[in-house]
Design brief:
The complex is a heterodimer of chains A (387) and B (205).
Chain A (H helix, E strand, L loop, with lengths): L1 H29 L1 E6 L12 H8 L4 E21 L9 E13 L7 H5 L12 E3 L19 E6 L2 E7 L14 E3 L2 H17 L5 E6 L5 H11 L6 E4 L2 H43 L1 H9 L4 H32 L2 E6 L2 E6 L4 H28 L2 H6 L2
Parallel strand pairs in A: 3-7, 4-6
Antiparallel strand pairs in A: 1-8, 1-9, 2-3, 2-8, 5-6, 10-11
Chain B lengths: L1 E10 L2 E11 L4 E5 L6 H8 L7 E6 L2 E2 L5 H11 E4 L11 H9 L3 H10 L15 H14 L4 E4 L8 H14 L5 E6 L10 E4 L4
Helix pairs in contact in B: 3-5, 4-5
The chains are: A alpha+beta (387), B alpha/beta (205).
C-alpha cells in the first residue's frame, strides 16, 4: 500500500510539475517571434516604422511587441592574419569584427521574462550594461572570461562602471549572434551625449521581439507578421518551431505517461493489497470464527476489520507521504533549451495527497466488507478448522 | 430447553451421527461420553449451532433452527450459547486476561476473579505460547463461563487438567447448571460423567 500510495502521489506530481513547468516555460519564453534585419550589419539604415509595430501589435494572439534598436560596431583589424582553414595554405589578411549593441526602442522596456530565461539581469541606472559570457568576449587586458553573474570594471572615457555577465547565449533568441551587449539606454544617453547617442542608436527600430500569448498561436502569428513585412524584404521572421514542438511533445506525451504510471502503480498496489489481505485473513480466519463463536455480531467483526485496516492504511499513508516528499526532493528534470538548462522540479499536489488519503480509507472499507462477505459465506466450523 | 430429534451428520462417506436424539431441560447437565473419534465434538457443535445437521431437527427453546434464517440462527447462538473448544482456541499475541476480556467483553475484575479461581492468578499477563496445555484449557473454559449464556457447552473440559484443577473447573461448570442454565460437556473418561445429571454414551464408528 505504501508503494501504491507513493506512486499515486509522486508520479502524477511529476506529470503535473512537468506539464505546468514546461507549459509555464514554453508560454513565457518560447512564445517569442523575432523580426530581425537579415542583411549586412552595415545596412541598418533600413528601419521599421511605428506603423509596422502597430500593425503587428494588432494581430490576434500577439501579447506585446518590443521594438529594439540594434547597433553594430565594426572593429577593423587590417594587420590581423587569420590562420589558413583546414586543407588550405592560404592565409587571410585583415579582418572586421562586429559587435552588436542594443537599446530599447519602445516605451514598454525590455521583456523581463526573456532575461529571466538565463537568470540574467537588466542593466540598472548606474550600470554600464551587460557583457555576455561567450568565448569570443573576454577582457582584453586580463584575458579572462566571465561566468554568469560575474562582473568586471569597465572604463569608458575615464569613468569606471561595473558590467555584469548575464549568461551564455543570453540573446540567442533575439539575434543568434555571438558577441552582443545590451546597454542601459539612459546610461548611454548620458555617457555619449544626446547627439552621439542619436547618431548611434537613433536611426530607428531594426529588431522586433513579438510576444505571442500561447504556444499554439506562434505559427499563425509568425505567418501574419511575415505578411505585415511585405514592404520590408530585408527583414526576416524567426521562431523556434522545433523547440515549441519538442516542448509540446514532452508536455503532451511525457506528463500523461507519468500520470498513467501513477494510476497503474496504484491499481497494481490495490490488487496486491487485496491478495495479501486475502491470504492474511484466510490464514487467520479462525480468529474471526472464534469471535463469532463467542458471540460477536458480523457488524462487530467488520468494525474490527475496519479498525485494523484503517490503522494499517494510516501508517501506510504517513509513510508514503514521507517517501513522496523524499522522492520529489530528488526528482528534477533538465532540458537543454536555447543553450540554457531548464530545470523542472517536482512539487507534490495537495489534491493527490488528499485523494491518496481517501483511497487508503476506501481500500480499508472495501477490504473489510469483502472479508466479511467471504468469511460469512463459509460455515463457522470451516472457519474454525483453519486453527 | 434443548432437543435433538433423529439427527444425522456425515463428513463425506464417514457417518458421524446416525439418528441421534436427546433432550436437556433447563437446570440440568448432560455429559456426552465416548471414545475419541466417536463424534462427541460434532454433537456439541450441533448443539452450539455452530453447524447444521444433514437431516433431523434441533430445537432451542422450542424453536426448530431449520426453520430459522441464517441471521436468526446466528442471533440464537449469540444470545444462548457459550462454547469452549476441545483444543483451546486462544489468540497468541494477547495475554490470558485479554483473551477473555477482548473476546467476551467481560469486565476486567470479573475476568480476573474467574481466572484466579481457576488457578491462573499469576498467569494473567502471560501470552498463550507461554502457558501450559492445562493453563490454556482453563483460559478457554473461563472465557466460555464469562459469556454467561443459557447453554454452556464444553468439549472435554478435563483434558490436560490435573485432578485438583479439574475439580475446581467442574465445580464452576456444574454451578452453571444449578440455576436456569444448561451444561453440556464431553469426556472420554466414564468416571467424569459423575458431574452430570444425564449421560449420553456414544459408540465409536
Amino acid at each position: 500500500m505504501i508503494v501504491g500510495l507513493t506512486g499515486w502521489i509522486v508520479t502524477p506530481a511529476i506529470g503535473n510539475s512537468l506539464r505546468s513547468g514546461l507549459s509555464g516555460y514554453a508560454n513565457t519564453t518560447v512564445t517569442y517571434v523575432i523580426v530581425s534585419y537579415s542583411g549586412s550589419p552595415q545596412g541598418r539604415e533600413v528601419t521599421l516604422p511605428q506603423s509596422v509595430v502597430r500593425a503587428i501589435s494588432a494581430i490576434n494572439g500577439v501579447q506585446a511587441v518590443y521594438p529594439v534598436d540594434i547597433n553594430y560596431t565594426a572593429f577593423n583589424f587590417p594587420n590581423y592574419t587569420a590562420p589558413p582553414p583546414p586543407g588550405s595554405n592560404v592565409s587571410i589578411k585583415g579582418a572586421v569584427f562586429y559587435v552588436a549593441s542594443a537599446v530599447i526602442g519602445g516605451p514598454d522596456g525590455f521583456p523581463v521574462g526573456l532575461v529571466g530565461l538565463t537568470s540574467g539581469r537588466l542593466p540598472r541606472a548606474n550600470e554600464a550594461g551587460f557583457i555576455v559570457n561567450t568565448p569570443l568576449l573576454l577582457d582584453q587586458n586580463s584575458g579572462r572570461t566571465y561566468a554568469v553573474g560575474g562582473s568586471a570594471s569597465v572604463s569608458i572615457n575615464g569613468d569606471n562602471f561595473t558590467a555584469y555577465a548575464v549568461g551564455v547565449n543570453a540573446y540567442n533568441p533575439l539575434l543568434g549572434d555571438y558577441a552582443q551587449a545590451l546597454w542601459n539606454s539612459t546610461f548611454l544617453q548620458n555617457e555619449l551625449g544626446q547627439k552621439l547617442y542619436n547618431e548611434t542608436f537613433g536611426a530607428g527600430i531594426n529588431l522586433l521581439i513579438v510576444k505571442v500569448a500561447t504556444i499554439d498561436q506562434v505559427q499563425g502569428v509568425a505567418s501574419q507578421v511575415t505578411n505585415s513585412l511585405e514592404a520590408y524584404p530585408a527583414y526576416g521572421v524567426d521562431y523556434d518551431q522545433a523547440t515549441v514542438d519538442s516542448l509540446v511533445s514532452v508536455e503532451t506525451g511525457t506528463a500523461p505517461l507519468y500520470e498513467l504510471i501513477g494510476v497503474v502503480t496504484l491499481g497494481s498496489s490495490v490488487a496486491a493489497l487485496f491478495f495479501v489481505s486475502y491470504v492474511a485473513v484466510n490464514r487467520r480466519s479462525w480468529e474471526v470464527g472464534l469471535f463469532v463463536s463467542q458471540g460477536w455480531t458480523w457488524n462487530r467483526v467488520t468494525k474490527f476489520f475496519l479498525e485494523y485496516f484503517l490503522l494499517l492504511a494510516a501508517i501506510a499513508f504517513a509513510l508514503s507521504l514521507l517517501l513522496s516528499m523524499l522522492i520529489s526532493q530528488y526528482t528534477t528534470f533538465s532540458y537543454q533549451v536555447y543553450g540554457s538548462i531548464l530545470r523542472v522540479g517536482t512539487s507534490i499536489g495537495l489534491s493527490n495527497v488528499f485523494s491518496a488519503g481517501l483511497i487508503a480509507i476506501g481500500i480499508s472499507f472495501v477490504v473489510s466488507f469483502f472479508m466479511r462477505w467471504r468469511l460469512r459465506k463459509s460455515s463457522l466450523d470451516n472457519t474454525l478448522r483453519e486453527y | 430447553m434443548l432437543r435433538l430429534e433423529n439427527v444425522y451428520k456425515s463428513y463425506g462417506a464417514i457417518k458421524v451421527l446416525e439418528g441421534m436424539s436427546l433432550r436437556v431441560e433447563a437446570g440440568n447437565s448432560l455429559c456426552v461420553l465416548g471414545r475419541s473419534g466417536c463424534g462427541k465434538s460434532t454433537l456439541l457443535k450441533l448443539i452450539a449451532l455452530m453447524m447444521k445437521p444433514d437431516s433431523g431437527s434441533v430445537f432451542v427453546g422450542g424453536k426448530d433452527i431449520a426453520k430459522m434464517t441464517d441471521g436468526e440462527v446466528e442471533a440464537t447462538r449469540r444470545e444462548n450459547m457459550a462454547y469452549s473448544f476441545q483444543e483451546p482456541l486462544l489468540i497468541p499475541y494477547v495475554t490470558a486476561l485479554e483473551n477473555v476480556t477482548l473476546v467476551t467483553g467481560a469486565p476486567k475484575a470479573e475476568a480476573v476473579e474467574v481466572l484466579t479461581r481457576f488457578g491462573l492468578g499469576d498467569r494473567l499477563s502471560q501470552r498463550p505460547p507461554k502457558l501450559s496445555g492445562g493453563e490454556r484449557k482453563r483460559v478457554d473454559i473461563a472465557r466460555a463461563v464469562l459469556k454467561k449464556s443459557n447453554f454452556l457447552i464444553v468439549d472435554e473440559p478435563l483434558s490436560n487438567l490435573d485432578p485438583e484443577s479439574g475439580s475446581i473447573v467442574m465445580e464452576s461448570l456444574t454451578r452453571h447448571a444449578s440455576g436456569e442454565g444448561v451444561l453440556v460437556y464431553s469426556t472420554v473418561e466414564p468416571a467424569q460423567a459423575r458431574f452430570a445429571s444425564e449421560v449420553v454414551e456414544m459408540n465409536a464408528k
